[in-house]
Amino acid sequence: MASKLWASRAASYFRISIFHRGFATVIKDFKYADTHEWVKVDGSSATVGITDHAQDHLGDVVYVELPEVGTAVTQGGSFGAVESVKATSDINSPISGKVVEVNKELNNSPGLVNASPYENGWIIKVEIGNSEEVKSLMDSDQYSKFCEEEDAKH
Amino acid sequence: MNLVRLKGVPILQQLHLEERLLRKSSDNWCIINDGTHDPTIVMGISGKPVELLEIDPVLQDELPVIQRFTGGGTVIVDQGTVFVTFICNKDAVPGLQSYPRPIMSWSSLVYQKVFQGIGDFSLRENDYVLGNHKFGGNAQSIIKNRWLHHTSFLWDYEISNMRYLKLPKRTPEYRQARGHLEFICRMKDYIPRSNFIDRTIDAVGNHFLVRSMELEAIKYPSGTKFQPSSRLLRKQELEEAEFDSRTGVFINGLLRSLDLCSLVNREYGIYNFSNFGHGWNE
After folding, report:
1. pTM as predicted
2. A88 and B104 in contact by Cβ < 8 A?
3. CB nearest to A85's CB, from B69, B122, B126
4. Which residues are reported to carry the modification N6-lipoyllysine (chain A) (predicted)?
5. What is the DSSP pairing of strand B211-212 with strand B2-8?
6. CA distances (Å), B65 to each of B12, B71, B76, B261, B275, in order?
7. B197: domain range?
8. Is A81 in Cβ contact with B97 (below 8 Å)?
9. Same domain, yes or no, for B193 and B78?
């Protein structure tokens, strides 16, 4: 609570508006990492992006650094970055595998990550290396709870 | 927090050090570089020279242009710039979420202390201002468990250096279409240089137990391989950017025959060099 009071005092003093919606959307059948990326598994393939919670906290995305097709990704390892406000923020892969496609639309329309984080704002498609890794990820309910707890701590 | 005080270190060297400490260290750091040697242009990670720079004078005067690993805009730095960088674990500041805006807010609290009684300091959108004039530009890099926030402070600047920079497309609202010289101010009009640095160190000491460390102690780590991403743009890249802007991408692509295939491959991903000579892969 003290940290929330400190943050709101600082925000008000400097006339900073920090609006976060009371909840972030999740997609029921997706899996989620504690670094706020989602993965949609489809057999041996997967699509990866950042969550609604992440895009809301990051702010307007102005640039997405995409990996090359063929790049190997490891669970928890960074594979690219988004730029928002004045920050570059790493994007970490929820699963290991090989990048088979990147969302080139993001080169011209990085804001898709904000507008449609779970659909048109997808970032990479991966050929899964180890399907067992998916079991270690959170489901939508677990992730929603995780986000609530994280926001409550700060 | 480890405090490293530098003087006149080239900005590229500083950026390489910062990125290595962000990604390879688990300590908290404050790095202060009091001026950098030669005037240098530093763009953010997504900066495009053709959009941000007056390339002709940059090429004529052979100004170095760097693309840094953090986000944000373009600055021209020199001996009149003072750099302050914080590199922290995500739990270093109790209650702070490692996202851009909370980190920016926290940093402004540090400098609020520095400028207490000296000037009308505030954080306006993402800039440090005195009144409504910018004197400090910020940028960040956030990774899984750590974050970096660095600032270039305009202690002084050369008016003539403004000619190298275009007015950026993305500007804060409070700028209100002001030109460079109407938008920025000099910190030297408010506070002596050494006083600013001393007061910054004191303000940091309100948040962390500060211990000084020499650059030599961290300059050459043994056994750690790291490839920094901040880089100096090649003269050829700037020349090509200038040519592109004058003639259009299509004509330039035809004339750059040696680069044609890699350009198409980069843009459309349909030509595979491993099958060079075997035609197009789709």
Report:
1. 0.86
2. no
3. B126
4. 86
5. parallel
6. 10, 16, 9, 26, 35
7. 2-233
8. no
9. yes
